[in-house]
Amino acid sequence: MNPTTRSRSDRRSHAAASLMLLGAGERLAISVLLSGAAFLGVAWALA
What we know:
Layout: H1 3-46
């Protein structure tokens, strides 16, 4: 196996890992936004 194919597969796995990281960050941001919106809705309803 020559180093070019190995580096290509390493690059592909690195891209997949960064995509997974991005997906996790997106889910975290969405959940934070949703909980913030729910908190604002409850505070506005109580005010």
